[in-house]
Specification:
Chain lengths: 335, 503
């Protein structure tokens, strides 16, 4: 380190510009770590079960988290902005129920789906309103909405699934079809992930989400309309729940009012394992999806090994705890 | 030497590739006030964190009253009798002032049941010596200077043998600082050793017994204050002589007006404020804490408060709805609270600098150009003499003064037409301070409007062409040229006429 005021060369003498990839080096570290763990698990499992590395099984594993992965995208962005949403499971079910109900009432399934997604957006806006205008906490508002939306689902269906046997094949295609060997669901998931990952890393619009989550007051003192940002991320998360709900509807050919109970825990766990902080300001889509993949992989591995479902919950919970603990220690060492 | 309380020798500490301390020594004697000086990033706060057990040294020994010790945590440090007032204020904003003060004491108590009444009485007593603050108030509602006083009170309630004050006066007014010095002297007379960190030479020379200077993590010298001159300290700090802390003033301000404020009022905080700023002029705003100086600037920029009245910038009336529009119009505000509202501590240096206007680092379609972002940050860092490892490091890894430079770089990054700077050199070392003053003068010379709010009267007098004094939310008066004396400003600020003060 030199003294005097005329130097701005880094202390370690580096001068070359660092791209955004390197700038997010710490988060990258988390992602490479996750990839390593996933690969390790895959290798171990491929020895344990010859069936594991077949395309059919890989496809099943991906299918198992692809739709929920769309919700993970929304949740991660919301977490980065400093919010949280407990209502994702109920709102996803709400989209199914509204879509299914409208379809049975004679609407075209595409229009029914669009209205269902629109309703979810409205639910998100409703939560955003309570958070930004009334000043309530995300946790409380979304807890209330979680219960309310579930109630609406049950009320509207009498608690029984709506069978949608007459859905036209071109609509079922989005949930059940394949393009070549790849299911449409997986393609949709990949497209959404890639789009939001790029948006979040590269655009000014989403950079404001990081500023807001990192220090809301400082963001306001930087001319950022933080309330708008939070309103937008809250609404976006619910909208993506709507998209997921519609895909589930096409996939199952039915609308289940009790669908998605406990989904919020899975989704939040995935985002946090992937590097998002509940304090806001950090997280990546790629990391969160890796988190979701890891959780799904563990479940399917345990299923293949005939481990009881009850054990699975215990193990998933432990993974979450381990991931955050390791992260805390890495952070401490850096500090 | 029985009067040595604390002795540090050969302390090393690195953070990754940054060597913050490279074998420093420090000896503290009972009853002395020992100043610690050094440029931003010299390692002062790092050494204090080592003493307080927050950081473990990589190498080196600490001996306490002649016995070698390892201090593993702040609690252990407290048990030995070490109290530290951090450079950065860290109160729990949601609980009361009294509870904040009590927290440290409860931590020390070995009893299961706490005698709240006694602790509260003690908190009130200690606080009472320092300032007139209601102990039942929410800590987060206090002004920055009052928060700083609460931090000091927290340390004073602990019966310590070594008290460390890391730049306590950066956030205090002159009057509050004088009270603090009085208390420090009384403590020293009782045998307590005080480590006092400051960038202000006058404070060191008026109040301290010895001074130790660090440079780049090394111990440069320890001197008896009575035997040296301020220049000696500055020279040891920066390795050269700084002849002038303040640049030359403008010969004559231009005739056109940059900013014209007419009858600005806000519901409770200020009334009927009118003033203007001419081209090439640096305007100062003085006043007591709570007089409404910051509020006026924030009101003009539309950050806080609903204002009535007119604001003209470069001959055009402004009709701003929020701060975003103010930034677009070229009017920015540097906050006095850099940790709370100035910086994103866990985000990178580059990301902090570009936060005000992302369109400047964006390509079409709102894509961020990382190369441009880093180039801009590097250029501004160079201009302000910022010391950092990499631009992608989080701002929290910088020393306090360097964080302040990032906050200033953030303002300059938008090429503003007018900047309000609230306490712009808080925590900045002498060399960098002179540099910031020169940059502000150059900006004014090139046509940018500069308005400086500062509690440091010598700074206002040295830097500004004209000083507006605010008293209780109104313009109490104005001084220029030779009328700019501390007495004149204080009398206008408090409304009490001093002997021979300007009218
Ligand atoms: N947690 C950390 N991680 C990385 N680097 C750090 C960390 N803390 C301090 N540093 C570095 O160590 C050096 C010394 O910092 P320190 O805070 O001790 O300086 P200082 O003398 O107190 O400066 P100032 O007058 O600005 O407060 C700086 O270069 C700083 O960037
Ligand atoms: Mg410091």
């Amino acid at each position: 380190m030199q003294s005097g005021t005329d130097q701005a060369i880094g202390i370690d003498g580096t001068r070359q510009p660092k791209g955004p990839g390197v700038a997010k080096g710490l988060l990258k570290m988390r992602e490479t770590g996750l990839i390593a763990i996933i690969l390790l698990l895959v290798v171990v499992m491929s020895f344990a079960s010859p069936y594991f590395l077949t395309w059919v099984n890989i496809r099943t594993v991906i299918m198992a988290f692809a739709v929920e992965g769309i919700v993970v995208v929304g949740m991660t962005i919301l977490l980065i902005s400093g919010g949280i949403d407990l209502s994702v499971g109920s709102v996803t079910a709400l989209a199914m129920v509204i879509g299914g109900w409208l379809f049975l009432a004679g609407f075209d399934p595409w229009i029914a789906s669009a209205i269902a997604i629109g309703c979810c957006t409205a639910v998100g806006a409703f939560m955003g309103f309570f958070v930004t205008k009334i000043g309530l906490h995300h946790f409380i508002v979304s807890l209330a909405v979680m219960v309310i939306a579930r109630g609406i689902c049950l009320l509207g269906t009498g608690g029984r699934p709506l069978g949608l046997y007459t859905l036209p094949p071109e609509f079922k295609f989005i949930g059940q079809g394949s393009l070549g060997p790849v299911p449409v669901v997986i393609l949709t998931f990949i497209v959404i992930v890639v789009i939001f990952d790029i948006l979040l890393r590269r655009t000014t619009m989403f950079r404001k989400v990081f500023y807001t989550g990192s220090n809301e007051r400082a963001a306001a003192y930087s001319g950022i309309r933080t309330k708008r940002v939070i309103f937008a991320t809250t609404t976006l998360c619910s909208t993506l729940c709507g998209v997921a709900g519609v895909i589930y509807m096409a996939r199952f050919g039915s609308a289940q009012p009790t669908f998605g109970i406990g989904m919020e825990l899975n989704v939040i766990a995935a985002a946090v394992i992937g590097g998002a902080s509940l304090n806001g300001g950090t997280g990546t889509i790629f990391g969160a999806i890796l988190g979701a993949a890891l959780l799904s992989l563990v479940s399917s591995s345990l299923a293949l090994l005939d481990v009881s479902v009850y054990w699975q919950d215990i193990i998933r919970g432990s993974i979450l705890l381990a991931a955050v603990t390791i992260d805390l220690f890495l952070n401490k060492r850096r500090g | 030497m029985t009067d040595v309380v604390l002795k540090l020798s050969g302390i090393h500490k690195s953070f990754g590739s940054v060597q913050a301390l490279r074998g420093v020594d420090l000896t503290m004697r009972r009853g002395e006030i020992h100043a610690l000086a050094g440029e931003n990033g010299a390692g002062k706060s790092t050494l204090m964190n080592v003493i307080d057990g927050i950081l473990a040294p990589d190498r080196g020994t600490i001996s306490w009253e002649g016995r070698e010790v390892t201090i593993g945590s702040p609690t252990e440090a407290q048990k030995l009798g070490i109290g530290l007032v951090h450079q950065e204020i860290a109160l729990c904003p949601d609980v009361s002032v009294a509870e904040n003060i009590l927290m440290a004491q409860m931590n020390m108590s070995r009893r299961l049941f706490v005698d709240y009444a006694a602790l509260e009485a003690r908190a009130a007593e200690v606080l009472g010596q320092l300032a007139d603050i209601d102990p039942r108030q929410r800590a987060g509602d206090l002004s920055i200077s009052n928060q700083q006083l609460v931090e000091i009170a927290k340390a004073l309630t602990l019966d310590c043998k070594v008290l460390i004050l890391d730049e306590p006066t950066a956030a205090l007014t002159d009057k509050e600082a004088q009270i603090l010095f009085g208390i420090m002297r009384r403590l020293a007379d009782r045998g307590i050793a005080i480590i006092y960190i400051s960038h202000r030479m006058a404070e060191i020379f008026d109040n301290c017994d010895r001074v130790t200077v660090f440079r780049d993590g090394r111990h440069i010298s320890t001197m008896q204050v009575s035997e040296i001159e301020p220049q000696d300290v500055v020279k040891a700090m920066v390795g050269r002589v700084i002849d002038d802390l303040y640049p030359d003033k403008a010969d004559a301000p231009g005739s056109d007006v940059v900013l014209d404020v007419r009858n600005l009022s806000e519901a409770t905080r200020f009334r009927d404020v009118s003033f203007h700023l001419k081209r090439r002029e640096v305007l100062g705003i003085a006043g007591l804490i709570g007089a409404g100086r910051s509020e006026i600037a924030k009101g003009i920029c539309r950050i806080e408060g609903d204002i009535t009245g007119e604001v003209w910038l470069n001959g055009k009336p402004l009709k701003l709805r929020d701060y975003g529009e103010s930034i677009d119009a070229g009017m920015v505000y540097l906050s006095e609270d850099r940790k709370g509202s100035g910086l994103f501590l866990d985000m990178s240096i580059a990301e902090n600098i570009s936060a005000l206007d992302l369109s400047r680092i964006a390509r079409r379609g709102g894509r961020i150009d990382a190369r441009k972002e880093h180039a801009r940050a590097r250029e501004l860092g160079q201009r302000l003499g910022l010391k950092y490892g990499r631009l992608s490091d989080p701002v929290s890894s910088l020393s306090g003064g360097n964080q302040q430079k990032v906050a200033i770089a953030k303002m300059l990054s938008v090429d503003p037409a007018l900047i309000f700077l609230d306490e712009p050199t808080r925590g900045v070392d002498v060399g960098a301070k002179a540099e910031i003053h020169r940059i502000l003068r150059d900006l004014a010379q090139s046509g940018v409007g500069i308005v400086v709010i500062s509690s440091e009267l010598p700074e206002l007098i040295g830097l500004c062409d004209r000083i507006l004094v605010i008293r209780e939310g109104r313009v109490g008066g104005e001084v220029t040229g030779n009328e700019m004396t501390e007495e004149a400003i204080m009398s206008l600020a408090s409304g009490v006429a001093f002997e021979g003060a300007a009218q």
